[in-house]
Amino acid sequence: MVGAALLTALVVNRNIRGRGFWRAMFFYPVMLSPVVIANIWNWVLHRKGALNAALGDTTEAMTALAGLAGFDIAATVILAVVLMVVTLRSLGPDAPPLAWSFVFAALLAALVTWANPLSLIGRDGSGWLGVGLGLLLLWIVAQGHAARPALYAAAAVSAILLLSIQFDAVFAFDRYRPVNWLVTPKTGWAFFWLVFVFCWSHMGFYMLILLAGLQAIPADLYEAAKMDATSPFRAFRRITLPLVMPTLTVVVVLSLIRSFQIFDEVYLLTGGGPGRETFMVVQNIYEVAFASDKPDYGQAAAGSILMAVVIAVFTFLQLWLTRRQSDL
Q1: Which own/partner pairs from 185-194 qualify as long-range (CB within 8 Å, at least 24 positions apart)?
Q2: Rounded to whole angstroms, how far apart are CA atoms 321 and 318?
Q3: Terminus of the chain with fewer CB atoms < 10 Å: N or C?
Q4: Which DSSP state fits 69?
């Protein structure tokens, strides 16, 4: 999350169009209530939600591609050959006479017109007709040197289409079933989306801190580096990163402390499930003290004190690192 926040801060710190809008959009999730965030992502990740709808549309498109078989592949390859040859021979610097261009255009029109009927013929066992037409086209386009690259491209296209059929057999594009991303056990998706939502809702805050650190760097340093023909990566490594390191240290420590305190997202999105895959420390303290049939306030207090000690250690570490960097 810290890396994403730094990258985002670097982008919105540049003089890009709509810079203020993008800064506001990245910071906007920070202002939302955890309940609103949970409702948004429950709608997205539900079995009938937006993510499954988008994946369903994508798999339908991939199924249409992977469904090409038999003569469909040959017709598509020949179509690609004719299109490339018409471009190379009719629009190139060594354009042939108009009669040749007319021949290629007529063959292209015939292929487009008869592709579907010939496909049906091929499935009925009379594929020799389509093969004959394909060989005729290949013989015509092979007569000129300008058409040879098209033949190599046709081989690449046919290989891609054949691989698409294999991918369909492996990935089962046409057998996609919606997934309830937050409650399906033993898949890891619940934990993944919980981390994603946590980063999405907090990254804007850390981006704003890093943006303030980046804007505190004098512009004269970058101008001098530009005059010395320093590459952007070297300028980032030699100028930006060392000068923003104190701010980056603060952000790292704050993000670690906040990760120990995560509760709202877990409680509202997964409740610690499926099973106990997303069960966190703070939720355990809450359930021991308030949600158990036999509340154990002593154990909950001990867990709270232990967490406070861990957070204090990280806080003092951040103060020590900041002071050490300021003394260098």
Answers
A1: 185/273, 185/274, 185/275, 185/277, 186/274, 186/277, 188/277, 190/270, 190/273, 190/274, 190/277, 190/278, 191/277, 191/278, 193/41, 193/45, 193/269, 194/265, 194/266, 194/269, 194/270, 194/278
A2: 5
A3: C
A4: -
Q: pTM surpassing 0.70?
A: no
Q: How far is CA 129 from the centre of its chain?
A: 44
Print burial letters for 223-256: b (CB count within 10 Å at least 16), e (below 16).
eebeeeebeeeebeeebbeebbebbbbbbbbbbb
Q: Per-residue pLDDT tens for 80-125?
A: 566 556 555 544 555 555 555 555 555 555 554 444 444 444 444 4
User: Which DSSP category does 236 fall into?
Assistant: I
Q: Is 187 within 8 Å of 277 (Cβ atoms)?
A: no
**Long-range contacts: 275-284, Cβ < 8 Å, 24+?**
275/185, 277/185, 277/186, 277/188, 277/190, 277/191, 278/190, 278/191, 278/194, 281/307, 282/307
* CB-CB contact of 183 with 270 (8 Å): yes
Q: Give the pair of three-digit tokens for residue 55.
A: 């994946």
Q: 3-class DSSP state for residue 176?
A: coil
| DSSP reduced 3-state for 134 | helix
Identity of residue 97: P
Give CA–CA dist 124/259, Å, rounded.
Answer: 63
Q: How many CB atoms lie within 10 A of CB 181?
A: 23
Burial status of residue 152 (CB atoms within 10 A of its CB: 0-12, 13-18, 19 or more):
exposed
How far is the C-alpha of 21 from the C-alpha of 34, rounded, in Å? 23
The answer to whether the CB of 68 falls within 8 A of the CB of 76 is: yes
Tokens of 231: 């590459």
Give 202-239 pLDDT, tens digit per residue: 999 999 999 999 999 998 999 898 888 888 889 999 89
